[in-house]
Amino acid sequence: MVDTFGIPRVVDARGTSFGRQQIQRTPQPFVKPLTCGGRTCSATAVAVVGHLRLQTWVNPMFRLGPGAEHSALCPFNVEARVDDLVKEHRAVVEPKDGQYRLLLQIAEATTPSAPGVRPNTEETRGAGLAPNAARHPTRTLPPVIKAAAAVVQLLQDLDDDPVAKARFVAVNHTPTGREVLTWDEFCWPSTNSRELAADIRTNPARPRAVWGRVAKAGPAKSGRTGFIQLDTPDGPPVRLRAKNEKYVVEKGLSEFVLGFSARWELFPPNSPRSAPQMWITESWMLATWNAFTQRPNTIQV
Ligand SMILES: [Zn+2]
Fold it and tell me: Which domains, ranges and CATH numbers included, belong to the chain?
């Protein structure tokens, strides 16, 4: 197995930018020499076509040329960026066996998921939680959500690099022990809402992070609740519903949102068009960011 991080984008001799999906085209559309497409980086790069290696398909990738190194701040310097991410989030990310394990430390959520309860008070929060480390969810969970959002943004920058993604897993604590989830099992793009709905049915008790582009946000038609609806091309909508409208007002303005909950549900529950949804009972259950704030380069083609 080749486990080298690829470079998601290069610039060719004419200054045109290319992503890795262009590598398999014949003839290849770029003019050599190639340079790493990270802003400020001038490392030489080479295109490696997809090939079978020991009966395993190796995806096409750009990689550094012989002896080349990324500039210090190159956003495509994946090793450095992963190191930085792990350092910044070391309270909840544990390196182990070549992987980085996001420790979910899930609170035992006892707040009913139906509307009508009064979240957001110290009494509710203190009395409703299991007598374990989850007694203070505002201390244990926000770092997990921030770390999950950081991984999502890193993978966005890397054009969803499969090698980088395979380095991240999530560790869920269940009554029967630890459950290690692949990144795809834990963290869902809203664009996979059909698969997400099926997964919620199969694993109803599993915590998940779901992220996507904000399609709609605002107050719900009835009552004082609010909602954020994430972009889904053809599957059922994904909704982050808030018992308090202010969470949506505060958070709904950024382009991307990640919501984290131990209790994703389907609404209505027994319909082929059931929509995945979670309840935002505290503002820290959401992370938000804008595209291109971290993007390394403008695309020229
Ligand atoms: Zn570079």
Answer: 9-64 (no CATH), 82-289 (2.40.50.140)
